[in-house]
Design brief:
The structure is a single chain. The protein is α/β, with parallel strands linked by helices. The chain has one domain (about 1-205): P-loop containing nucleotide triphosphate hydrolases (Rossmann fold). Helices cover about 30% and strands about 30% of the residues. The longest helix is centred in the C-terminal third of the chain and has 15 residues, at about 165-175. It is globular, with a radius of gyration of 17 Å.
Length: about 210
């Protein structure tokens, strides 16, 4: 799986968030976008995901050296970010069962095994609206890790996590990003110290 950016740029009104990005993102590699708060890391991630339109340039999505149409790209990626909401009225079990209808788990992982994996067994029948922000983030990360998708996108992955949950993330992120294309936004070196490729958004400011 590849994402190829050519002269890619995004602006809001008259301000360029990034411009002239030429880069090839490949499966089996990890990439972290760094930069000051508000510099545009999340915007770049959303543009590459296809969730947000770009202002100039081109993005090509390829699998086995064949181009995908943008409308099919979503099938191959999963995103975990603090600003993406879970369905508040669903229980944890219902969230999982809803998710796997669209993004099945790898290795036919069961709902019970997934709940054990994210270490929230007592919350299986609790509605998400009663979860702490850290519990919600753990669910999002777990769904991303376990989904059978070739591309994994994480934005500020340890946001809202306590020390134990952060350790859980660090224990699992490398395992569950193997043989996938990992794109990560972060200002916390501990979140991405394993990453092979670091891109500073400031390098793509006009």
């Amino acid at each position: 799986m590849q994402i190829i950016a050519q002269n890619l740029g995004k602006k809001f009104r008259n301000e360029w968030i990034f411009r002239n990005l030429n880069y090839k993102f490949q499966s089996g590699e990890s990439y972290t976008f760094v930069g000051a708060n508000g510099s545009g890391k999340s915007t770049l991630l959303q543009v590459l995901s296809g969730f947000m339109p770009h202002s100039e340039g081109f993005i090509n999505y390829e699998i086995n050296q064949k181009s995908l149409i943008v409308d099919d790209f979503y099938k191959h990626l999963v995103v975990a970010a603090p600003y993406l909401e879970l369905i508040e009225d669903f229980t944890l079990t219902e969230i999982i069962e809803f998710h796997v209808k669209f993004k099945p788990f790898t290795n036919n992982l069961s709902t019970a095994d997934f709940i054990e994996f994210i270490e929230l067994p007592k919350a299986q029948n609790k509605e998400v609206k009663f979860f702490s922000s850290g519990m919600k983030q753990r669910v999002k990360l777990g769904l991303a890790f376990c989904s059978d998708c070739k591309i994994l996108m994480l934005d500020e992955p340890t946001s809202n996590l306590d020390a134990n949950a952060t350790d859980w993330y660090l224990r699992n992120v490398q395992t569950y990003s193997q043989n996938r294309l990992l794109l990560l936004c972060s200002n916390q070196p501990s979140e991405y110290e394993f990453c092979q490729n670091i891109l500073n958004i400031q390098d793509y400011k006009p």
